[in-house]
Design a protein that fits this description.
Blueprint lengths: L8 H29 L3 H12 L4 E3 H8 L3 H13 L3 E6 L2 E9 L1 H21 L6 H19 L2
Antiparallel strand pairs: 1-3, 2-3
Helix pairs in contact: 1-5, 2-5, 3-4
Amino acid sequence: MVQPRWLDETEDRAWRGYRQMFLLLNAQVNRDMAHESGLSEPDYDVLSTLAESKNHRYRLKKLAERMMWSQSRLSHHVTRMQQRGLVTREECADDARGATIVLTKAGRKAIEAAAPLHVESVRRHFFDHLTREQVEVLGDATHAVVKALTSS
């Protein structure tokens, strides 16, 4: 039987701190966004991705992959966003089973209003508490972990 590689005190502090920060920070930024713009985190993710994409459209399958959601879960969420007039769904010309999600004018207005509020919340609750050096080290660390997780 392989012996577990227990965390040392420094690793344990970093891991527990990361977990607590992640949960608290996400909750706070999501509260701010919902209060200030009426958008949820998934709403913001969908709208910002569409706003940054070519022709403000994205294949449902690719959007689900980007958000790390199942297609079914995203499809249900997109249906709720459609009911609010933020997006539309079009059939794909090259794939009868596929769908393309398209940003509407209302969706564009919503993301344009929410983006400055979102970035201010992120800055206020996260970056304002870190030095430039800490931000650079964190960027290097997160990219190393993401690279390891996505290359396997």
